[in-house]
Design a protein that fits this description.
The protein has 168 residues and is an all-alpha fold. It has one domain: Ferritin (Up-down Bundle). Helix 1 runs parallel beside helix 3. The mean pLDDT is 96. Bound molecules: fe (ii) ion (FE2) (2 copies).
Length: 168
C-alpha cells in the first residue's frame, strides 16, 4: 500500500505531540528540582516556572483543538535524556556546594530544548496559515526565553559563586 507523501502538516503534528509529551515530563520534574535546590531564589524560580508550565500544557491543548485533533503525546527521548541528566546531578552532587549550579544548568538545557521546539512550531504554524496557533506558541516561547534569562542572571549573580566557596 502506497503511503501519502508526508508534508509540513505531518511534521507539525508530530512535533506538537513531542512538545506536549515533553511539557508533561517537565511538569513532573520541576517540583523535584525545586525540592532539591538549596537556594531559596532557585527554588522560587523553579516553582514559578512549574506554574507557567501548566499554562504551556493548556496552550498546547488549544493548538490541538485548532487543528481538530485530540491532545496526544509522543515519547520524546531528548527530554527524557535531559531530565535524566538532571536526576544524576541531584544524586551525584547531593549535599555539595555545587548542587544548585548543576540543577540550574540542567534547567537551562530543558529551556533550550523548549525554545528550539517552540521557535520551530511558531514558524511552521505561520507557514501553515495557523495564525492563532503561532500566537500561542509565541506566548510560550516568550516565557521560556524569560525563564532562561532569569536563570542565567541567578547563576551569574549568585548560584555559580556559591558553588565555588572562597578558601578562608
Ligand atoms: Fe514550557
Ligand atoms: Fe520551560
Amino acid at each position: 500500500m502506497a503511503s501519502e507523501p508526508k508534508t509540513l502538516n505531518d511534521l507539525f503534528w508530530d512535533t506538537l505531540k513531542d512538545i506536549y509529551y515533553a511539557e508533561k515530563q517537565i511538569l513532573k520534574a520541576l517540583p523535584k528540582m525545586a525540592k532539591a535546590a538549596k537556594s531559596p531564589e532557585l527554588k522560587q524560580a523553579f516553582e514559578k516556572h512549574r506554574n507557567e508550565t501548566e499554562i504551556h500544557v493548556d496552550r498546547l491543548g488549544d493548538v490541538f483543538e485548532i487543528i481538530g485533533k485530540a491532545p496526544r503525546g509522543k515519547t520524546c527521548d531528548a527530554i527524557l535524556g535531559i531530565i535524566d541528566e538532571g536526576k544524576s546531578i541531584m544524586e551525584e552532587f547531593e549535599g555539595s556546594p555545587a548542587l544548585d549550579a548543576g540543577l540550574l544548568a540542567a534547567a537551562q538545557a530543558v529551556e533550550h530544548y523548549e525554545i528550539s521546539r517552540y521557535g520551530t512550531l511558531k514558524a511552521w504554524a505561520q507557514e501553515l496559515g495557523l495564525g492563532n496557533a503561532a500566537k500561542l506558541f509565541d506566548q510560550t516561547l516568550t516565557e521560556e526565553l524569560k525563564t532562561h534569562q532569569a536563570l542565567s542572571q541567578l547563576g551569574e549573580s549568585k548560584v555559580n559563586k556559591q558553588a565555588q566557596p572562597k578558601a578562608a
